[in-house]
Every structure is written in C-alpha cells, then in structure tokens.
Automatic annotation (TrEMBL):
Top-level taxon of the source organism: Eukaryota
Keyword Transmembrane helix belongs to the record: yes
The protein's name in its UniProt record: DUF1776-domain-containing protein
Residue ranges of the region described as Disordered: 51-72
Gene source species: Penicilliopsis zonata CBS 506.65
Keywords (A to Z) from UniProt: Membrane, Transmembrane, Transmembrane helix
PANTHER family tied to this protein: 3BETA-HYDROXYSTEROID DEHYDROGENASE DHS-16 (PTHR43313:SF1), SHORT-CHAIN DEHYDROGENASE/REDUCTASE FAMILY 9C (PTHR43313)
Keyword Cytoplasm in annotation: no
Membrane spanning stretches: 87-105
Length: 453
C-alpha cells in the first residue's frame, strides 16, 4: 500500500458518521428514482402497440413492489421463528386446534335444533304413534316431549281408563288411538282403527278455511313395553307371569308392528320403527330375571330380523332402531311415592324353594346393577338423553357428500350403565360376571339367611 492510499483511507475514517449517513440516504434516494424511472419507461413501452410482442415488456405497476416485498419479508420472519421455536409452535397449534374441535364439535352435537318439520302453511304434519301403556311413566314422558317438539302424537290405548289418562294430558296433539289386536285383518287390508291415520297421510288436510291444505306424514312407530317384570327363580315364577310377559311384551309389539307396516311403507318418505327396552339384565344374562332377559333378547332378535328384511325392500325408507335402556331418571313427577321392599317375594315361596334359592336370590338383589329398590335409591342419566335419542331415531337419515342417505345407527345406548354392561356381558368371562352379581356372597348351604326379610 502506497502512502497516497494510506492517506485516502485516513481521510475517509475522519469523515463524521452523520455525513456517511446522509450520503447513504442520498444513494438510496437515487436508487429509488432510477427504479421509478425504469418502471415508468417499462410501463410506457408495454402500452406501445407498434413494438413486437416478443420484445414488449409486460405491464408492471411500481406500487406492487413495496407491499409484496414487505409481505415476503414478514413471511420469512415468521417462517424463521417457527423453525427456531418448534416446541412453542406445536403447543400453539395444539391449543387452537383442540379449542376449535371442542367448540364446533360441541356446538354441532349439543346445539342441534331438534324440532319436527312443519308443512308449508305452518301446521304440524309429522305423526308419531307410541305403542306403550299410558300407565308407564316413560310412555307419558316421551309423548309429552315429542308433542312439545312439534309432532302429532297418538298413544295406543285398550281401555277407557287409558283413554282418560291420555286425555288428561290436556294437549290437543296428544291423542288416544284405540287398537284391538285381536281383530286382525288380512295382510292386504288396513286395520279399521288405522283408517283415520291413513286418511291423514294420503289426503290433503286443511287446518282452517283459507289456509292451503297439506298432507301429513307418518314418521315412526315407537314401541315401549312395560319395564316391570316378575323377578325370582324360574321355578317360582307363576305361569300367569310368563304368559303376561309373552303376550304384552313380545307378542303385542310384534302384532302392532305388523299392523303398521302397510302404513309405514305406503309412501316413499322415510320413517322409523323404534323399539325401546331395558338392557342391563339381558346384557349380563342376570340370574333370577328370566322374564326380562327372555323379553329383551326376543325383541332384539325381532328388530334385527325386521331390519334386514326391510333393507331388501326396493325403497328402503323404513329404518328399525333399537334403544337399549339403562338407568334413566325421568324426573320427580314420574317417580312413584311408594315402592315394594325388594326381597319380600321370598315369603310367598315354599319352604323347599326358600331353602334352595333364598340365600342366593337375596345376595343377587344386593349386587343387582339396576334400580332394584326403585328410582328413589338409584339415579340414572337425565331424561333429556332419552328424548334426544328418540328424536334422532325418528328424524330422516342424513346425507353424505355424494347426496346418498346414510344408514341410521341400528342400536342406541341410553341411560347409565347401558353401554358399560353391554361390553361387560360380551367380553368379561362368565365367572367374573357371576362374581359381580353376588355368586361369592354365600356358601351354597341353607343357613336361613332368607329370614332377614
């Protein structure tokens, strides 16, 4: 390095910093002016038609340069931050993803508007028939809820007392329906008691003068057998109890379904057959519950067979849904005031039967996983879960992305213990299930423990 060069660098180092800053700003200003002039020339040339298209520049506005560069700079900074903080990035994405899933999923499941569809004139058009005794709290609870959601509800009655109970609800759209199952028409005919409903779903109905008429729709049949069964060893259950279980809880639902099938398949609109029954004892094949287990399994087999049979029909518009019930608390207004003390039926047995079954039977009552002492001692899930399940079983099936109808869920578990005991009965070994039901409580000898009653 010569002395002149050294002198030049020393001179540069002596320039104040503010002068250097000013010079840099001037240089940047000159660069911007040159870029602006180049952009103007480029824009002018791009608009000249006399230039060949091969050499004509594409139009470009100078206003696009600043924001795009700034956005690219921001995106680069975000990307670099993500690479440096991968753990924080994963935690943030997991938090927001979980929040969105819980919010929108809960809103979709629990915020669903469960209302019956109405006719174009605003009148009710969907009809539901409930085949259950009005004496049963579950029948009255379901009928009241469906009427509140916009259905026209018919409750099957077989006596004047039951008709008065339905009329005592004092609701215009909860109506009694007399149905004599002993009067069975030919398969090609409609039962005389169902001609009124047939008229509603085939002929236009006008709610009042001046209102356009509409045609009603039979949306479903809800079968609710009585939940009260004779309990005890098979040897002690009288023949009348077996006959009552078979006739009123198995044969009656089957005949009722048979009578309504011509109406359910009369039109192409979708409808449902809902069969609700207690499932805990039948899932575990509980001892001393022969009538209940036989009834529940018979109804389940009938529903499964009917479901496959209706799927073979070309329209396929009738769905069969089983509602397997656990413990459901219908509310204080449906709870009985007094309940029979569990185990007192042992006193009606013979001496030999008490000696043979007494100890084991009383032990099974203590370990029974159902409300053996009545709803006053065992609380189940809210009645709202039952009402939601019945409504979901009645509503038309949803459609997939391709517009095709989805198959409804064949089995719905409602109430505390319904699904749990179903899994236990399917997968847990029989010996362990027997231990749960109280098999280990006694030694098998007659020790007079039944006298505790």
């Amino acid at each position: 390095m010569t002395s002149d060069d050294q002198f030049f660098f020393d001179y540069l180092a002596s320039i104040p910093h503010d002068v250097r800053r000013y010079s840099l700003e001037v240089a940047d200003s000159i660069d911007r002016q040159v870029d602006h002039a180049a952009a103007v020339v480029r824009e002018t040339l791009s608009q000249q038609s006399w230039l060949p298209s091969s050499i004509r520049p594409s139009p470009r506005t100078c206003g696009q340069v600043g924001p795009s560069s700034r956005s690219r700079d921001f995106g680069d900074r975000v990307y670099e931050w993500i690479l440096r903080n991968r753990a924080w990035t994963a935690a943030i994405f997991a938090f927001f993803g979980t929040t969105c899933v819980l919010y929108y999923g809960g809103k979709k499941l629990h915020g669903k508007r469960r209302k019956a569809r109405k006719a174009g004139n605003g009148a009710r058009k969907e009809i539901v028939v409930i085949a259950g005794s009005p004496h049963e709290p579950m029948t009255r609870s379901i009928a009241t809820d469906l009427e509140r959601r916009g259905y026209i509800v018919y409750v099957i009655v077989s006596s004047v007392e039951e008709e008065h109970m339905v009329q005592a609800e004092n609701r215009a759209d909860i109506r009694p329906l007399w149905l004599d199952l002993t009067q069975t028409p030919s398969p090609s005919e409609i039962h005389p008691s169902l001609l009124g409903i047939r008229s509603l779903i085939t002929q236009a109905q006008s709610p009042m003068p001046g209102v356009p008429p509409h045609i009603c729709q039979l949306s479903g049949l809800v079968i609710i057998p009585s939940a009260h069964y004779a309990a005890g060893p098979v040897a002690t259950v009288p023949a009348s109890s077996w006959a009552d279980a078979v006739n009123t809880r198995i044969l009656s639902p089957i005949l009722t379904t048979q009578l309504f099938l011509p109406l359910l398949t009369l039109r192409s609109s979708s409808s449902s057959i809902v069969v609700a029954y207690p499932s805990i004892s039948s899932s575990l094949a509980a001892p001393f519950a022969g009538p209940e287990v036989a009834t529940a399994r018979a109804l389940s087999g009938f529903a499964a067979s009917l479901r496959r049979e209706l799927r073979l029909v070309q329209q396929g518009n009738v769905s069969v849904v089983e509602v397997r019930l656990g413990n459901v608390d219908l509310g204080a207004q449906y709870r009985p005031l007094q309940n029979q003390v569990a185990g007192t039926e042992v006193l009606a047995w013979s001496t030999q039967q008490r000696a043979l079954y007494g100890a084991q039977y009383l032990s099974s009552i203590e370990q029974r996983p159902v409300a053996s002492a009545g709803p006053q001692s065992v609380r189940g899930s809210s009645a709202r879960t039952l009402h939601y399940a019945i409504f979901d079983a009645l509503e038309p099936p949803a459609k997939n992305l391709f517009g095709r109808k989805k198959a409804k869920q064949a089995v719905l578990y409602v109430g505390t213990g319904s699904r749990t005991y179903s899994l236990i009965g399917q997968w847990v070994p029989d010996g362990l299930v027997g231990w749960m039901l109280g098999r280990h409580r006694v030694n098998g000898e007659s020790d007079g423990s039944w006298e505790r009653v």
